[in-house]
Design goal:
205 residues; mainly alpha; 8 helices
């Protein structure tokens, strides 16, 4: 009988969390039939980064328990972006979105591992600038818009655990660094959601 260690079990638990993290956000968009307030630049970057991470993990030979949810996350992030464009009545941007998706999937399939690592490192400043801008936008508006609190929490819990399992499994720093950055800003944005929701509830009362 095959033995399964604790790290592998934790990896699969985190994979499940990551796989369902964006479902509440999709439900929020479908229920409201609106993409207002969503940072679509962030979802564009998240779509590309999750595709990049998937390619990096596969080409690096990491166990699937360390990245299984990334593929599902990529599909969900793309779905959120597409739904938002649809409800915002932006057919041209929606067509470009599908075209860009097919293009970079094709490129990442044939790109060597060394190129993917270079692109990953170059994306860190972009993610830093974009996430910092999102935090400032939320602060300025005193609102996180249509962002789902459940999605924010599941993302934060999943990425925190994923950092732990990646460190313990000896993953390279260029794989861990984007997750640390994502966790940092995820913590801030989750805190903003809780803060502005509490303020909104107090005004309602």
């Amino acid at each position: 009988m095959m033995e399964v260690d604790g790290m592998t079990i934790l990896g699969y638990v985190l994979a499940v969390m990551g796989s369902v993290a964006f479902i509440p956000q999709i439900q929020t968009i479908l229920k409201s039939k609106s993409g207002e307030g969503l940072d679509l630049v962030m979802f564009s970057i998240a779509d590309f980064v999750t595709a990049l991470v998937t390619s990096l993990c596969i080409k690096s030979g990491l166990d699937i328990s360390n990245w299984a949810e990334v593929i599902v996350t990529n599909i969900q992030v793309f779905t959120i972006h597409a739904l938002a464009r649809y409800y915002l009545n932006q057919p041209k941007q929606l067509s470009l979105l599908f075209g860009a998706k097919l293009l970079y999937i094709a490129v990442l399939t044939v790109a060597p591992l060394s190129w993917i690592k270079i692109v990953m490192n170059c994306l860190l400043p972009v993610v830093l600038f974009e996430r910092g801008g999102a935090v400032y936008k939320h602060y300025k508006n005193k609102s996180t818009g249509q962002l789902s609190g459940a999605t924010l929490f599941l993302q934060w819990a999943q990425i925190s655990g994923r950092i732990f399992t990646s460190v313990m499994s000896g993953a390279e720093s260029d794989f861990i660094a984007p997750m640390v950055l994502q966790c940092f800003f995820g913590t801030i944005i989750l805190g903003q959601w809780l803060l502005y929701r509490s303020a909104k509830d107090e005004k309602t009362e």
